Amino acid sequence: MREAHAQQGATGYWEKKLEFALEDARNGSVDPQDVAEAYLHFGQNGKTFEWLEKAFTERNEALLHLNEEAKWDPLRSDPRFRDLVSRVGLPR
Known about the structure:
With 92 residues, the protein is an all-alpha fold. It has helices spanning 2-26, 32-41, 45-57, 79-88.
C-alpha cells in the first residue's frame, strides 16, 4: 500500500486498501468496518452503510466508537447513521 500511496497519493492508498479488504471479505477474514471506511473515502455512502450494517450484524465492538471517531463525520447528518448509532445503543 505504501507503493500505491507513493505513486497515486491518498486515492491510490484507499483503492489498494479497498482491494485488499474485499479480497479478505471473500476469504471470510475482514473487519467490515475497514471496508466501510474505504468506501467512505470514495463517497460511496450506500456501500459504506452496507458494510456498517454487516459490522452491526456481527456485533463488531468497533461500532461502540462511532460517536468518537472523526472519520465518520461525513455521515453524521444521514438518518441511516443516526439510526445505526441508536441501534448500537449510543447517545445521539
